[in-house]
Design goal:
This protein is mainly α. It is 48% helix and 0% strand. It has helices at 2-10, 26-31, 38-44, 58-71. The protein is elongated and about 45 Å long.
């Protein structure tokens, strides 16, 4: 994920990590009985939030898509 985020940043695509599983939050720790959710932890360490907002036009979406495909070798 750090390499991917760095690649996006270098290409002026401002993605970020903005997700924390409920069981890891202060509230979740207070009310949940188990903090051993290994699959959830594994997936949450891979999530990247891509830009998506009303100012994006079709060219922005195409540019972002192409850069992501390039990073993963799918072009």
């Amino acid at each position: 994920r750090p390499k991917f985020l760095n690649f996006l940043s270098k290409n002026k695509i401002f993605a970020f990590v903005g997700y924390s599983p409920l069981h890891q939050s202060k509230y979740g720790k207070k009310f949940l009985r188990s903090d051993k959710l290994h699959v959830t932890d594994s997936i949450s360490n891979k999530i990247v939030r891509l830009p998506l907002h009303y100012n994006m036009n079709e060219q922005d979406v195409d540019y972002t898509s192409e850069k992501i495909k390039f990073f993963f070798g799918k072009n």
